[in-house]
Design a protein that fits this description.
By secondary structure, the chain is α/β, with parallel strands linked by helices. The chain is built from 13 helices and 13 strands.
Length: 414
């Protein structure tokens, strides 16, 4: 398969390097894909597809890193937002949409006795940590998973004083003993345990909770009087309307939602037990932003949730994802490409098995090169997503592309 024509993308990238540090910040930089093969600028999307500036079309299995739960350019949502824009959306005071959305969160999410709204997942996780420290009057945070870019949790420490993250300690997913050891070693000083209820470490297989794991985390949090926070930024409104906590039957003290809750509009939510959230009402803990109360995103979230409920989107994605997972697992297993399939039905992932000669890096590069050339947009170091508007034909074609790409890997790098 020939290399894609991405000439305009490359020209725009040269310009971006002059205008923006690194061309673009963070995970969207070319080295997180396959440099020279992936497009660098996208221009539009519709349903389950995106187009780049050179006119190449792709089945989008990255879904903007998770926010696109229904589909790109969802007219019903965009029209609701446009109507609000005509009235205004950034005011001196909060707007009625705040109460409507908070009521809906309470209806759907077991721990959401009270909620407030921020803009990003990092806003939400950092808010939860501050609330937990204010509530418990303790310092230590025990973490498991990716929780954003702020000082306390950033995985790159450049520009951050050690004092900002020295009290954040990491435990292993599906390993209660590693959590218990940290709790015992920091008795009386653990403010919060924050965890992604589905494990999704960078570039490694997605992990589902083993029997008793999340229940054990809940029990240990209770024993040590620590606030249990579920970081549902990726799983919320995707694995179920109430999040992974509801699906797996474990209720945290605080749950964080974002990404899929507004189908691409920038909003996240901090939902928690009233007695814990009280530290905000009593002004013991301060959280504020000029843009947190903007109503466009709240309108988008309410309309998104309306569609999710009406169309049984989470159930349908799970059901279709099970079929996709079954077919894709068989393809990967039969490929002989030293690859592995992992994930849950809405969040599939293909990784390549480590080997002493580190051929897995070349296998990964070749696989994703072949996939993008055939019109399938995934991310080598990040799991994929299934959206509601992905058609059966989209998913069938995705499997064909993955099969063809793995066949090439097996032949060229045996």
């Amino acid at each position: 398969m020939d290399k894609l024509n991405i000439r305009k993308s490359e020209e725009m990238w040269d310009e971006a390097l002059d205008l923006v540090p690194g061309g673009v910040l963070g995970i969207r930089r070319p080295y997180n894909f396959v440099p020279g093969e992936y497009p660098l600028f996208l221009t539009r999307g519709k349903a389950g597809h995106v187009w780049d500036v050179d006119g190449n079309e792709y089945i989008d299995l990255l879904c903007a890193y998770g926010p696109i739960i229904i589909g790109h350019r969802e007219e019903e949502i965009d029209e609701a937002v446009t109507e609000q824009m005509k009235k205004g959306f950034c005011f001196n005071l909060c707007q009625p949409w705040q109460n409507k959305l908070a009521k809906k969160m309470r209806e759907l999410i077991p721990c959401a006795e009270q909620s407030f709204f921020v803009k990003t997942g990092s806003d939400a996780t950092t808010s939860a940590v501050r609330i937990a420290r204010g509530f418990t009057k303790r310092t230590k945070i025990l973490r498991c998973g990716y929780h954003g870019w702020h000082d306390w949790c950033s995985e790159v420490h450049g520009g951050i004083p050690e004092a900002a993250y020295k009290d954040t300690l990491e435990f292993k997913y599906n390993d209660l003993s590693s959590l218990e050891k940290l709790l015992d070693g920091n008795k009386g000083d653990v403010a919060a345990i924050i965890i992604t209820p589905v494990g999704h470490p960078l570039a490694k297989p997605v992990e589902v909770p083993k029997d008793g794991f999340l229940e054990g985390v809940r029990s240990l949090a209770d024993k040590h009087k620590a606030v249990l926070v579920f970081d549902e930024i990726r799983t919320g409104f995707r694995v179920s309307l109430g999040g992974a906590g509801l699906r797996f039957g474990v209720e945290p003290d605080i749950a964080l939602f974002g990404k899929a809750m507004a189908n691409g509009y920038p909003i996240a939510a901090v939902c928690g037990k009233r007695n814990i959230m009280k530290v905000l009402a009593d002004a013991e803990v301060f959280i504020s932003s000029t843009f947190f109360p903007n109503s466009m995103e709240m309108v988008a979230a309410l309309k998104t949730i309306e569609i999710l409920e009406r169309e049984r989107v989470c159930d349908q994605i799970w059901e279709r994802g099970l079929v996709f997972q079954s077919e894709l697992s068989a393809v990967v297993e039969a490929s002989g490409a030293h690859a592995s399939f992992s994930g849950i039905p809405p969040m599939p992932y293909i990784t390549f098995d480590s080997d002493p000669e580190k051929k897995y890096k070349e296998r990964r590069k070749l696989f994703f090169t072949q996939a993008i050339r055939r019109g399938l947009f995934m991310q080598p170091y990040h799991h994929s997503y299934i959206a509601f508007r992905h058609t059966d034909e989209d998913l069938k074609r995705a499997i064909e592309i993955i099969r063809d790409s793995l066949d090439i890997v097996a032949k060229e790098i045996p």
